[in-house]
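Budget justification, computational time. The allocation requested in the original proposal was used primarily to generate structure tokens for proteins on the priority list. As evidence of use, we reproduce two of the resulting records. The first is shown immediately below.
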Amino acid sequence: MQVELSQSLYSDILYHAPDAIFIESLDGIILDVNLQACKLHGMSREELIGMSVLELVPPEQRETVKKEFPNFAKGNLQMFEGYSLHRSGRNIPVELITAQVQYHGEPALMIHVRDISTRKALKESDALNNAIMQTLPGGVVRLDADRRIIWANAKAIDFLCLHYDPKTQCYHHNCDCQIIHEDNTPGDLQKDWPGYLCMDQLQRMEETVLGFRCNQCPIRWAVFSATPIVDRQTRLCSGAIVSFIDTTQQRNTMSALRESEYRFHLAFDHAPMGMVLATPDGKFLQINNRFCTMLGYRWSELIQKTFFDIARPEDAKACQKFADTLKNSQATRHSTRKRYVHKDGYDVWCQITVTIVRDPQGNPQYCINQIEDLTPQLKAEAQHQQLEERLRQSQKLQAIGTLASGVAHDFNNLLLAIESYVDMAQTQYQRNIDPSVALENIRQAIRQSTGMTRSLLTFARQTNGHRQAVDLKAVVEQSIKTLKPLIPANITTVIEDLSECPLEIHADPSEMQQLLMNLVVNARDAMPDGGTLTVRLQTERCHGKRPLLHLWVCDTGVGMDDQTRQCIFDPFYTTKSRSQGTGLGLAVVHGIVTDHNARIAVTSELGMGSQFKITFPAKCPVLDPNQTQHPIPNDLRHLVLIQKDAMLRQVLGAMLKEHKVLMHGVDTMAQFEKMLLVNEELKCDLLVCDDAPESLPTESLCRELKARQNTIRWVLMTDRNTPPTPMAFASQALLLRQPMPVRELARHLVEFMEQQS
């Protein structure tokens, strides 16, 4: 439909319209424009009239407008959004409304062009704001004056359990939604929600912590802030903006952290071992009840101390060294055994394991110390050792009766031989015949008697396991001589020495004799009809390691089956009758072998005999008796003997004089102290004492002798394995076993002085 415009109407519409108006021909040529059209394009009326409408369109849209223009001309397309081109080249978003009119009697188009830049900018701004609101880390809600939620982002919809009502065009809470206060008490949604409170009070609500529960879901917590929207002129509230941050995860994390911290303190305080949190320099940060109980302190007393305060003064250097190791080492865990001082003054031995916690730069931050009280363990070990010693001694006392019965016969024979040789010597002396042969036989008989007595004493004495360098070959030979009365005549004894060189082991001679006796008696009982008992020594060279010394005890007896062989070292296990054995012999053997860091292996078959192989780590070569001895220097020839037996002092002095050793003999240590007071120049290179209380030096005398002559050495004549007090004397004394022939004693003393020269 075409509209015929009067001249006056045309002028009013064209020149008074607020928007740009173009009069165009049906082929797109501009016939007339108003003032707003000139402003829209930055051109004058004269410039615009006669232009093609396509020249006022941005190049990228001209093809589209060219295609749609016929629809405009026909009246099929009356509204269109696009862009107009300003003279400066700026694109202006516009909305076009077209209508067909008669212009000077000819059909034409009147195009109404409205600048929609502001509207489009607002629309884009709203879209941007909505996108921003949707991407915020928290939720946002917009309330109107009627307290209706008219807008909410996705996080708010999910958190507050909102659903949209198209009829009312607002959001509503689920009917079962419940609000929870920070102290876990229930609240009223209509009264306590910050969005409503800020509208009632017309003031901003800051950081209110609330929880929401909906549809039986777990409570979700958030920190809310609400701001009322107030008209500045009327001071009326037109709504509110509510924002919140979901703190459910943080709250759960903090709750779990508090629970973890509570459990840690619970485990820390009630741990069965001592727990200490300390700085790298040993200052206590936290200690538990068990550690306080271990040391006898109250918590308030002990927390003020350090690891250095509860250590022995003599352990200060070791403690500082351990602390330096913790600071400088890259390892995260260290373990050591230490002793601390109880409040009552006694030592508490502990096993301490330290775990180091480091900062991101790798520097030690603090140490977690786990401290185990070793007192029960040490007591158990001591009791176990004591019971083991009692077991061995019990077995010794059992075996000594068997040994004594065999030795008694030979001992009586030796006494008869001595008596006979004495009578012979007296008769020869009366007849002026040289009695040297008879006297030499008496000497040999006495030596045999002394050796038998010494073996019995050493074997039967209860000892504490004194270890020394032992020539195992000599022990074997002496033991076989001692045990000879126990071996029947139908058993042949063979000693084989296959060692490549003499070797010593670090052992207790008494326990070695006990070991050999048990194995020999066991072999004897395994050969009731006779056979061969073989004791063999064999060395083994190991490249890069200490040589090994093997001791074999073999018999040709009845042998053992597999079941018996697996049980022979169990205490009280025996295949003999009750009258023949208790089952302790081989158990004691196994204990002795274990204590000496040795190994024992058994091979046996029924009817094929048994072989016990014991492997010892060798200590060092036995001294060659033919090696060159160093002569005793003239200034190291002074020996003092403390011995009550005047005859022994006289004979020993005469023998030492042959080696140019000057001996001073006194009865007691008190007499020797008087000699020192009277003669300040008295020299003592070797002090030889008898194992008797009145013959042992005191601590003060040891210090005085050491101060007077630093090169002094000590010798103790004893038949015990346990060193006597004082320790200053015992720790440096050479032990000489007694009884011993005087000439052999003199030889040992001379050799000792030669070794010290």
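The second record produced under the same allocation is shown here.
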Amino acid sequence: MEKRTIFAVILIIAVFWISNEFLWKPNVPAQTSVNQPTEETTQTPPPVEVPTTDFVQPPAEAVPSDIEINDAIVLENDLLRIELSNRGATVNSIQLKDYTMADKETMVNLIPQGKSLYGLSLTNTNGAVKNLGNEAFTYTIDEVENRVHFTYNTPQGSVEKTFTLVGGYEIGFTVQKQGFQDFDSYTIALDSGIADTETYLKMKNRVYKVVAQVENSITKLSLAKLKTRQDIGGSIDWVSVSSKYFTIGIIPAPQINMNRLIAFKQEESPAAQVSVALSRATVTDEYQLYCGPLIYDNLKQFGHGYENAVELGPKYLLWISRTFLWVLTELHKIIPTWGWTLILFSLFIKALLFPVTHKSFESTSKMQKIQPYVREIQAKYKNDPQTMNVEMQKVYKEHGVSPFGGCLWMFIQMPILFALYPLLRYNIHLRQSEFMWLPDLSEPDPYLILPILMAIFMFVQQKLAAPSKGKLEEMDEKQKAAMQSQKMMMYFMPVMMFFIFRSLSSGLVLYWTVFNIFSIAQQQIINKKLK
């Protein structure tokens, strides 16, 4: 591997690392009002009462003593078990039957202990807030339709909330309001945060986030960005509060004027409120709630780009990520073990890149063979750079090589690596998937065996690409000095890659290690061919 090739490797890794740390993170939108006012006409809607740090509901009226509180109203299907309360007509527990905690027994519960979701507040034209989160609702249960209907009645008006367990991870949610003439908006709270389900939480500030589509543009606000409240106005298609593998979302019907999102941090977890403008005294607003795993196909069925709540990397590489996701899914239908699926997938990528990598490896080997001609031209025309360049091009053409051929495969592989990184890092299918000594392909190797193997195979690959001892003896002093620098890089690069990859998901490291093994085999074949 030539010096410029080594430089290309370093550049690729640097760009990849910087992109992941900084460039892929979307800019936090400036805090805005729902509709920016003009000097003449538009007025901003009343503010939602949220402090700049943790959310605290405005005071609510005392619960009437004649309505008994039931905190264990249950709706259940094959995938979900949810518990609701008539105190505020809220959801207190969302258990996923197909997913367990680290003990492999306790079902994942998306709502943190003691918290609740989908509380409602009404806001009047003066900005006063009537919080219904602590009010007692009467309720009826329809077991046939798997539905709970809550009602709150006062002389000023009534509010009804209905939750219907539709199927899968979808919950139908309806808000009905009659009366309350002075109230021109209401707020739905996704303020519980989302529960921790994994043991490895070092990346929590980056992977936990509020994701929304506002004005047909995706907004992602990581937990690290939610140290201060983010107030975003505009037409909102959907909002999700997500951890690494799970999400709690709300998708309004098209006619609903959801026009304000407030995102904030709630006890080290992302949280949100959405505000809906009212144009009539009597309304019936319907929503779809998604409470479950971040699976691309699950979210895509809701439309409106809701599948973008799944982290698949930068926008300009989405088509690659989605293609690879499809390939992985199809391979897994054939091979039930995800470890072997990743190995076969790495073979697929190697085959896909074979024409380019083969030509690149051959070019590197041929460049080493023509070094005597290169030195001769350099010595002969050392005082005539222009002629030297012409003669060098003739040699390259005669032997069918390019001075940049050794770098070509790396630049082609760079977008592939960029696309695979988030795809494998956030893929819920790898969660709790065991393979050989690896207890969980979604988490780093606890024994560091895989990162060490990856570094060793990377060193072997570079060693095979290095000039032989005989070729080194034919080089001049300048070239030998360059080879000495390359030798240092040959030792440095695997060590650096070890420290980068040791904290990444073992599924990603498995793919990269196997890919390097296939590259070594390919390099061996080329070396024998060109002897």
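A brief technical remark on that second record: DSSP finds twelve helices and 19 strands in the chain.
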